[in-house]
Amino acid sequence: ARRLTSILPALDDDALLEVVAIHSVGGILPAGAVPVRTPPFRAPHHTISLAGLIGGGPGPRPGEVSLAHRGVLFLDEMLELPRYVLDAMRQPVEDARVVIARAAHAIAFPARFLLIGAANPCPCGFDGDPSGRCRCSAADIARYRSRLSGPLADRIDLHVRVGAVALADLGQLGREESSASIRARVAAARERQRIRYRVLPGLRCNAEAPGRWLQSHAGLSDAARELLGTAAERLRLSARAYHRTLRVARTVADLGGEEQVDPGALAEALMFRPAADAP
Predict the structure, then answer these.
(1) In angstroms, rounded to a whole number, what is the distance separating the alpha carbons of residues 106 and 97?
(2) pLDDT exceeds 90 at position 258
(3) Residue 117 backbone dihedrals phi, psi, to 5 degrees
(4) How far is 112 from 97, CA to CA, in rounded Å?
(5) 170: CB partners within 8 A, 6+ apart
(6) What is the dihedral of CA 262, 266, 267, 270, to 10 degrees?
(7) What is the DSSP letter of 220?
(8) Which backbone phi and psi does 272 adopt, to 5 degrees?
(9) 208 vs 68: CA distance, rounded Å
(10) Which SS3 state, helix, strand or coil, does residue 132 take?
């Protein structure tokens, strides 16, 4: 999660001004510090309060979702946060802003961030481990996973189960793609999106595009459109999940330098979308 900012494009002038402004209001911009164009990375502890995460208190002040604006918000041990705190993230994840209402006025803070959440598969952490060490009951696992509500899970585009790495593999050295190489590919994809959304003022990337607009202008092939319709029925996707899958598929195609979204790009996007009744 901490390495994600190393593959993101540098902040442009407008994004940099937004980040500096929100960090200044939040009181985390050191006096005399030179602003950097690296996207912010915020990783609050799972004991954080609702006001600390969303914003509020005297002032009020921006929370972590706003301090991560144009960057990454990482929630480790995500399911250890109280459910009401997690559910308060629905609005910022959906609307890219937080509105804090007070008796006499309301204040809006920007909150467009990449959310990464990490959690154990069960209370003991060994569900699915080949060693068979997990002793959690089905009810325990269901209760634990239910801390992430359906509406919030529906707003998370990529669900990835990460297995344990074998001890024998930890010390092996392999030829991995460098962050600089990945960042160049991401920057090229972002440039394609910038050109695509010039007709929509204020939009920069696929994540910000209206779902209905993408249905007509995403370059979805006939075969991919048919696959999406079939998958939406079988996986019982909500309208929100349908459009989010389309955005991910368009991004997969952009990363591959493809003008059209083919069935392969759509299938890759669907791999990360759980069914409606999946944990």
Answers:
(1) 13
(2) yes
(3) -120, 135
(4) 7
(5) none
(6) 180
(7) B
(8) -100, 5
(9) 17
(10) coil
In degrees, rounded to 5, the angle at the alpha carbon of residue 102 between the alpha carbons of residues 56 and 24 is: 40
Contact 237, 276 (CB under 8 A): yes
Tens of pLDDT, residue by residue over 86-120, are: 999 999 999 999 998 877 788 899 999 999 999 99
Task: Specify the pLDDT at position 275.
Answer: 59
Give the tens place of pLDDT for each residue, 215-236.
899 899 999 999 999 999 999 9
Q: In this structure, is the dihedral angle defined by the CA atoms of residues 214, 218, 224 and 226, taken in order, positive or negative?
A: positive
Q: Is the pLDDT of residue 276 over 60?
A: no
Buried b or exposed e, range 126-142, using 16+ CB within 10 angstroms: bbeeeeeebebeeeebe
Q: Report d(CA 269, CA 265) in Å as an integer.
A: 6
pTM of this prediction?
A: 0.90
**Overall residue count recorded for the chain in this entry:** 279
Beta bridge partners of 74: 116
Number of neighbours of residue 111 by Cβ within 10 angstroms: 27
Alpha helices (H) along 9-77 = 13-25, 50-54, 64-67
3-state SS assignment for residue 261 = strand
CA distance 142 to 79: 12
All residues at 6 or more sequence positions from 269 whose CB lies less than 8 Å from its CB, including other chains: 245, 246, 248, 249, 252
